[in-house]
Specification:
This protein is α/β, with parallel strands linked by helices. Helices cover about 30% and strands about 25% of the residues. The protein binds 5'-O-[(S)-ethoxy(hydroxy)phosphoryl]adenosine.
């Protein structure tokens, strides 16, 4: 935290205040102190087939329940209800890509597509509570499939298309997915990435999978054995299906989706979200934070394979009846102006991206954004990692032309929705996430749960439940409890932060062994287990090393087998192996061969020591070191 930025205050533009749903930020925070009352009011914006009996049930902590016994359907609220309004012919989704191809679907078209897919899934034997795995690029069929699952009560588990065979197999196996929906391929920077091939390899070891559905997305030939009655092309599958499908009446606490994310130890965790609270939390935060109105054109550059895409490309915008852009490709291809071109072409008003992309694009110079008319923009957003004040100011000046407030939104896969973030009418400080949102009780505390003094570092905690909170870790209740039991009674986010003298929050980074690479969470344990599964690697430890663009990169320390030497050839092989096991996001920036790893007497690798040596920091307490 730099002192000078703590004192820099940027007031909201008058035009924004005039129009804002929430005029008085501080007053709204005050109103949000009665969390039950606050979220109850928000829940009234939706269609409930049966009203809830109780807003919050906290009788079995930390297994909280929201909108108890309420019955609803999130797809009904995101799609069906707009068909009876003036939004019927409004564009719901604009798909565009680095090839600058375009496809638009109105709410009515989305409605019929979702219904056909929902009926097709039913015909395939998918029932309420079954898991469907979606391994798809950014394309309309991914959105349609998610909504189709939710319509009939199936649980979707989206696997980011940048993940590879090993990760895909693990997720299918753990969830016992019945159906996998994929595509022939996706593309990035002009390169084709075959997805169906990965599915074939993964599914070979997953007996739960009964059917594979393939979207012909990139016109790449694929092997598909329609004769077995097990594999279908998407278009053929939905051909002739009825375009009406009644919504399943879902309990507010029925599961909606499982989304895997990295934790500090062991395998990725299957974060489980449920229907009612997620619907209420996600749409009302989007409405407040991005001040969504009917005439907005909203563009979030995340991938639907991560929580930002789930909450704020698919569910949030559609629940508000907004037009949402889905973009497939890289931010800098065919040139580093592609996003600015999209903003000009469609007249984007609300733009939401990640610090890593901004740092990357800023390097190419101001001439790219300056070439385009970005004057339609009203509010900008950022998410995924701390944004440094310099990049914040560049975003504010060059992209927003000093007219657009920046919403630095802190949240997590587990929280489901924005938690600490300004509203457009808040006075901002570059690099600060400002304050917890109305209805959210967050703080910075020490290990005992006591608030720390202004300027002191501490842990980010949430003190009271919130509607879109995860309900459990799939098949691992123990890991769910850990979030609430490490500091008893509080949700521990495993981030470190500070509050300044004005009670503004500054997020400093993770406090656990999760590495944040370009806004993607990767667990050291995952990378290490991928490394160790290579035949020449005996032991491995990885650390995150700060990187000016990516935030962090991975550095791996390896003990090799049988006197092997880590030459360029072997390095390449090991990198390829990790790519196959996890995916291209797990980029190993550096590798170093070592004779042994620093360990505790109980045999745990002390990554802290490796990190301190690598970064030239103090070693700290070494009393538990074995040697
Ligand atoms: C980090 C992404 C600083 C944080 C929505 C958190 C942030 C992790 C911010 C969650 C922000 C997210 N400022 N750090 N505005 N937003 N983070 O689950 O370390 O992919 O714990 O969810 O990203 O990553 P996840």
């Amino acid at each position: 935290m730099k002192e000078n930025f703590e004192d820099m205050i940027i007031e909201p533009p008058e035009e924004i205040v005039k129009r804002a749903h929430v005029k008085d930020w501080e007053k709204e925070i005050e109103k949000g102190k009665d969390i039950e009352e606050y979220w109850k009011k928000k829940a009234k914006d939706f269609k409930w087939f049966k009203k809830w009996d109780m807003v919050l049930d906290d009788s079995n902590k930390p297994f909280y329940k929201w909108f108890v016994n309420g019955k609803t359907n999130i797809t009904y609220n995101a799609v069906d209800r707009w068909i009876k309004t003036g939004k019927r012919n409004k564009v719901a989704i604009i798909y565009t890509s680095e090839k600058e191809k375009e496809r638009k679907l109105t709410y009515y078209e989305l409605y019929t597509e979702v219904n056909k897919m929902a009926n097709a899934l039913k015909r395939l034997g998918v029932k309420k509570g079954d898991v469907v795995c979606l391994y798809l690029p950014m394309c309309p069929e991914l959105v349609i499939s998610m909504l189709a699952c939710a319509k009939i009560g199936a649980i979707h588990t989206v696997v980011f298309s940048g993940l590879s065979v090993g990760a895909l197999e693990e997720r299918i196996r753990e969830t016992n997915a019945k159906v996998v929906i994929t595509a022939d391929a996706t593309f990035r920077r002009g390169r084709i990435i075959k997805l169906k091939d990965n599915v074939d390899e993964a599914v070979a070891k997953c007996p739960s999978v009964e059917t594979i559905v393939v979207v012909n997305h990139a016109n790449v030939p694929v092997k598909i054995s329609e004769l077995t009655g097990r594999e279908f092309f998407y278009d053929k599958l939905i051909e002739g299906e009825d375009s009406e499908c009644p919504p399943e009446k879902m309990d507010a606490e029925d599961p909606l989706f499982i989304l895997y994310t990295s934790g500090s130890t062991g395998k990725p965790k299957g974060v489980l979200h449920t229907v009612g609270g997620y619907m209420v939390g996600v749409s009302s935060t989007l409405k407040m934070v991005f001040d969504i109105h009917d005439d907005d054109l909203y563009f979030c550059t995340a991938d639907i394979g991560w929580i930002t895409g789930h909450s704020y490309i698919v569910y949030g915008p559609l629940l508000l009846g907004t037009t949402t852009i889905i973009y497939e490709g890289a931010p800098d291809y065919p040139d580093p102006a592609i996003w600015w071109r999209i903003i000009e072409k469609y007249g984007v008003t609300k733009f939401y991206t990640a610090p890593t992309a901004l740092r990357h694009l800023r390097r190419f110079g101001d001439r790219h954004p300056k070439k385009y008319n970005l004057s339609t923009l009203k509010i900008l957003g950022t998410v995924g990692e701390p944004i440094d004040p310099e990049t914040w100011l560049w975003y504010y000046k060059v992209i927003g032309n000093e007219r657009c407030p920046i919403m630095d939104t802190w949240w997590q896969t587990e929280t489901g929705m924005h938690m600490i973030s300004p509203l457009p009418t808040a006075p901002l400080k570059p690099g600060s996430v400002t304050k917890p949102l109305p209805g959210i009780d967050a703080d910075i505390v020490n290990k005992n749960g006591d608030p720390v003094k202004p300027g002191e570092k501490g842990y980010v905690v949430i003190k009271k439940p919130w509607p879109a909170m995860m309900r459990t870790i799939y098949k691992d209740e123990k890991r769910y409890r850990e979030y609430w039991e490490t500091i008893p009674g509080y949700y521990l986010a495993t981030d470190v932060g500070k509050k300044d003298k004005d009670s503004y929050f500054w997020i400093l980074g993770r406090s656990d062994d999760v590495i944040n690479i370009s806004g993607h969470r990767i667990g050291t344990a995952e990378v290490e287990s991928a490394l160790i599964s290579h035949p020449d690697v005996a032991e491995a430890a990885v650390i995150g090393k700060p990187d000016p663009i990516k935030g962090n990169v991975i550095k791996a320390f390896l003990v090799l087998k049988n006197g092997k030497k880590l030459d360029v050839n072997l390095m390449e092989k090991i990198k390829e192996h990790v790519k196959h096991e996890i995916g291209p996001i797990a980029v190993i920036g550096e590798m170093e061969q070592v004779d042994k790893l620093p360990k505790t007497r109980s045999g745990k690798v002390m990554r802290r020591i490796l990190r301190a040596k690598e970064l030239g920091e103090e070693l700290g307490d070494t009393s538990t070191l074995e040697d």
